[in-house]
Design goal:
By secondary structure, the chain is of the alpha+beta class. The protein contains four helices and six strands; from the N terminus they run αβααβββββα. It has a two-stranded antiparallel sheet with strand order 1-2.
């Protein structure tokens, strides 16, 4: 079971001025949200999925620490756009998480 990823509100990079992208100022289009706010938004779902894991022995994985720091969730970390929009991770972020899923599957297959 994969816990829901943090959300970054209604952020949409299509709302950014094209000139910012063209002049290499894409960072001006990004956004952040405190980790506390992001965790509060998904708290009920994470708690419910933890209960499912306990009662069914399903493995539950939470990717929030992979996508956010302890204090902040940001659309971009260093040179990588982590979010496609406010609710979906980017292809680059998904690719980075591939190793995490591979390690999990390897540990389950013994």
């Amino acid at each position: 079971v994969v816990d829901p990823v943090p959300k970054l509100g209604n952020w949409n990079p299509q709302d950014c001025a094209a000139v910012d992208w063209l002049v290499g100022n894409g960072d001006a289009c990004g956004t952040t949200e405190s980790r506390a706010e992001a965790d509060a938004f998904r708290d009920r779902a994470v708690s419910a999925e933890a209960g499912v894991g306990e009662h069914t022995m399903a493995t539950v994985i939470d990717l929030a620490d992979d996508l956010c720091t302890a204090d902040l969730c940001a659309t971009r970390i260093e040179d990588t756009w982590m979010w496609k929009d406010g609710g979906h991770i980017s292809v680059d972020a998904s690719t980075q998480l591939g190793g995490r899923f591979g390690d999990l599957l390897a540990s389950l297959s013994g």
